[in-house]
Amino acid sequence: MVSLRAAAAYVWAAPCTAVGLALAALAYLAGARARRVAGVVEVALWPGGQPGPLARRLPFTAITFGHTVIALTWQEQHRLRAHEREHVRQYERWGIVFFAAYPLSSLWQMLRGRHYYWDNWFEVQARAAERLGWPPRRP
User: Where, by residue number, does the polypeptide cross the bilayer (predicted)?
Assistant: First the structure.
């Protein structure tokens, strides 16, 4: 049984998840594959584990949209699961506002002379979650 809080988190993040699912559907037509893991749709663009030449041009190894995580391979899905699940939790907290909050955090860091990605508040949080692993081990 899904709790009311969990259901609300899915609804709140739903517009972002819809974007991810639309991208996943396009990728699926090109050979990507999807599966559901712990309430999140995981997509591997190259499910066979050998990314094509296009992979070098993509600006990400994995990217999250609501409850959809798109990664290059299943191996990358596994390796980055804790990091990307933190982004899922961020979407659950921020909802569609996350689409503005994330780039604004990058812009803020750049204006302060810091790195747009490594110092982005959301990425700092996700790397902290990585250290806890998946499933999360709380201190």
Answer: 94-111
